[in-house]
């Protein structure tokens, strides 16, 4: 049975306190603390992910709709107490917290379960907008991308806002960090990947000319909104490619460009 919370200061819901301060509880260092999942649909995806569930907190009725393990701490509160705890008005009924897991082993991610199987990865450079990262992760899962590789400057894909925008799909997508950037791209080349750097530059090849059937392993490089990929990252990639667009439009937002590229190279 869920435990009813009436005191916003109750320590049992400390995982969920003051989330408006950022994408993690106030005072928690970057890249640490519990994973916070917002919304019943995302909580259901959390249950299918490898991240160990810690607690669930929400309004009566919505929490009971979830098929939760018997040993999970479950708390309910009215919408006013819930809002006071988390710091904003929740419209999605429930939140959950989960233990973090370390990033995937890079070599294992590059090898894949079946070395002969087609593999698609996305590589993000300097992408520090949590909502863009979440949107890219959602498109990645939908369009056949099997993992994310991040340069050392990328935002944490497990921040609450990234998880929310991804609708929880980021929790099912393995990710690893390429610490040596961009020289670390050679590790992908050694593993048989064609690296494709997206850029709106006129001298880049048309993305539709990159035939995914000719390359069993492909990795798409995406840069931050605005600056895009650095020249160093573009030079380190095997191919520089642009998305064909109508005259007068110079580029797409990174999340939209990612979805187009993932679909084109599927």
Brief characterization of the structure:
The chain is α/β, with parallel strands linked by helices and 266 residues long. The chain contains 8 helices and 12 strands. The chain folds into 2 domains: 3-98, 60s Ribosomal Protein L30, Chain: A (2-Layer Sandwich), CATH 3.30.1330.30; 106-264, Alpha/beta knot (3-Layer(aba) Sandwich).
Question: What secondary-structure arrangement, pairings included, does this model have?
Answer:
Elements: E1 3-4, E2 35-38, H1 40-47, E3 53-58, E4 73-76, H2 79-86, E5 94-98, H3 106-111, E6 119-125, H4 130-142, E7 147-150, H5 160-165, E8 175-177, H6 185-190, E9 194-198, E10 205-206, E11 217-223, H7 231-236, E12 239-242, H8 254-264
Parallel strand pairs: 1-4, 3-4, 6-7, 6-11, 7-8, 9-11, 9-12, 10-12
Antiparallel strand pairs: 2-5, 3-5
Helix pairs in contact: 4-8
């Amino acid at each position: 049975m869920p435990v009813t919370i009436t005191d916003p200061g109750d320590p049992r819901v400390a995982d969920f306190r003051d989330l408006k301060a950022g994408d993690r509880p106030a005072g928690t260092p970057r890249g640490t603390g519990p994973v916070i999942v917002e919304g019943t649909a995302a909580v259901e995806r959390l249950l299918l992910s490898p991240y160990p569930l810690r607690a669930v907190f929400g309004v009566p009725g919505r929490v009971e709709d979830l098929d939760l393990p018997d040993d999970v701490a479950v708390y309910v509160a009215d919408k006013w107490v819930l809002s006071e705890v988390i710091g904003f008005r929740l419209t999605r009924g429930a939140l959950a917290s989960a233990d973090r897991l370390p990033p995937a082993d890079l070599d294992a991610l590059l090898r894949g379960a079946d070395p002969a199987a087609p593999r698609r990865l996305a590589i993000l450079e300097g992408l520090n907008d949590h909502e863009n990262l979440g949107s890219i992760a959602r498109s990645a899962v939908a369009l056949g991308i099997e993992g994310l590789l991040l340069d050392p400057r990328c935002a944490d894909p497990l921040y609450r806002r990234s998880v929310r925008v991804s609708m929880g799909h980021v929790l099912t997508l393995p990710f690893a960090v390429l610490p040596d950037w961009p020289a670390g791209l050679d590790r992908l080349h050694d593993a048989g990947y064609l690296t494709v750097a997206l850029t709106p530059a006129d001298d880049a090849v048309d993305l539709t000319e990159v035939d995914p059937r000719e390359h069993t392993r492909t990795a798409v490089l995406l840069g931050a909104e605005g600056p895009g990929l650095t020249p160093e990252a573009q030079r380190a990639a095997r191919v520089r490619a642009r998305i064909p667009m109508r005259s007068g439009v110079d580029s797409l937002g990174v999340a939209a460009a990612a979805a187009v590229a993932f679909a084109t190279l599927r």
